[in-house]
Amino acid sequence: MPHISKKKLRDATYVKINEHFVDAIIRLYSEKRIRSFLNELFTKTEKIMLAKRLAIILMLADDHSLYHIQKILLVSPSTVARLRDTFDAGDFDHILKIFKKEKNRVGYWIDFEALLRAGMPSMGRDRWKGFSSPIKKGPRKNR
C-alpha cells in the first residue's frame, strides 16, 4: 500500500481537497481524458493497489473465498478481510452497480483472467504440448 504522511489533515481541509479531486474527475467527460488524468496523477504502485481493490470487491460480489482472493491477487489476509467488512456494510453499492450489467462484468473478467494468466499455456489436455514437443523430438541434427 502507498504510504501517506502521519500528519493528520484537519477534517475541513480533507473535505475541501476531496471535493476538488472529485470535481476534477467529473470535468474529464471522455475516456481518453480520464485515462490521461489517472496515468499522470497516480504512480504504478497506486494504480496496482486500486486495481487490486476493485478486483477484491468484484470477487467478493461473486462469492469467492477470502483465501482464494488472497492467493489469486497476492494480497494480505488483512486487506481482504478489511474490504470484506466494508463490502458487508454495503459501502461498495455504487461500484457494484457499474459492474452489475452483464456486459461490463463479463468484459472485466475476460481481461482480468488474461492478465492473471499472462502468457501461460491454455488449460486442458494439450496445455504443455508446445513446451514439451521439442524435448520429445530430441536435438536437431545438422543435415
Task: Summarize the structure in words.
- It is globular, with a radius of gyration of 21 Å.
- With 143 residues, it is mainly alpha-helical.
- The chain has 2 domains: 7-41; 44-119, no CATH class.
- Helix 3 crosses helix 5 and helix 4 (66-73) crosses helix 5 (77-88).
- The protein has 8 helices and no strands.
Strand content is: under 5%
The overall strand count is: 0
Task: Please work out how many helical segments DSSP would assign.
Answer: 8
Category from helices, strands and their pairing: mainly alpha
Q: Return the average pLDDT rounded to an integer.
A: 78
The largest β sheet comes out as:
none
Order of helices and strands: HHHHHHHH
Helix content: 55-70%
Low-confidence stretches: 127-143
Backbone shape: globular
Count of the separate structural domains: 2
Q: What Rg, in angstroms, do the CA atoms define?
A: 21 Å
Give the terminus-to-terminus CA distance.
57 Å
Secondary structure elements and pairings:
Elements: H1 11-26, H2 31-41, H3 44-61, H4 66-73, H5 77-88, H6 93-98, H7 102-117, H8 129-137
How do you describe this structure in short?
This protein has 143 residues and is mostly helical. The protein has 2 domains: 7-41; 44-119, no CATH class.
Descriptive keywords:
2 domains; 143 residues; single chain
